[in-house]
Amino acid sequence: MPIFGTGGAMTIVAHQDDDILFMNPDILHSIEAGVSNTTIYVTAGDSGLDEAYWSAREEGAKAAYLLMAGGGTWVDETITLEINGQTFEIASSYLAENPGIRLYFLRLPDGGGMLEPEEYEQLARLESGDLGNVASIDGANVYARDDLVNVLTELMELHAPTEFRLQVADGGYAGGEHTDHVHATEFALEALAGYSGESYAVTQYVQYQSGTMPANLSDEDAARALEIMQAYAEHDLAVLDETGQLAQVYVDWTGRQYVAEQYTVDTVGEPTDPTDPTEPVDPGTPTDPSAGSMVYSLAGPDAFLFTVDAT
Q1: Where is this region: Disordered (predicted)?
Q2: Average pLDDT for consecutive 10-residue bins of the chain (311 residues)?
Q3: Has this prediction a pTM greater than 0.85?
Q4: Inter-residue contact 111 to 179 (CB < 8 Å)
């Protein structure tokens, strides 16, 4: 019988480094406080590469959380969900000594990287309805649009979190974002609409744009965030530079944490207490290809231009 930590925080992100790059030290401090932390990685982060690459990224995520938890032993298992007559087999790992720390790997295809054009942005196209279904790259599941929403909602129900951490999905801070970041959050927000939790907080974090914002972490928190990212980087060569060191853009991100939006939802599902970032910046003028959108590219397997509505 699976062990599910309940309450606490649930983080839903697209890729295996999105949480530790952009949501720390919040995740670290939460784990150190003994709060249950459940993280769902929506895509495999494969960048069109083989299993050796995406499975290594999963090991990187586990290494990062192991460090934040202060050690332990990972237990790998498959969680079976029965939803509307369908069965979904979800890869998952939890810490034997601290079962409240659990990771889920849904393994939908990454939206960019070394892909054929027809394979780009499958998560976005599933969300928009352009694709009727998308198979996880491990072959375990096939998701229609509603299936992915329902799986996320079911995982929420299993863990009953009172706090959700998400990536930015719209507005100026979404300009230039990776398509997977945006659409993982769109799916998460839709799943939240079906969640039965009576009261919960939602925080959406600035992602890529935080690298150009002022460093705002204490020296201690910045050092810890960098150490955590380096634990991940031992398993993902794509985040290293030509000297084998963590690429500077990742170092810059670990020195910052910014909130794009924060609010609570009460028992009737009405958002309250909206909060803006404490040090907001002008997201800038859209650069290309049309008004209201921005383009971002990142070297390595994720080298692909994403155009995101920034209005």
Answers
A1: 267-293
A2: 90 98 98 98 94 98 99 98 98 98 97 64 89 95 98 98 97 91 97 96 97 97 98 97 96 98 80 53 32 38 41 36
A3: yes
A4: yes
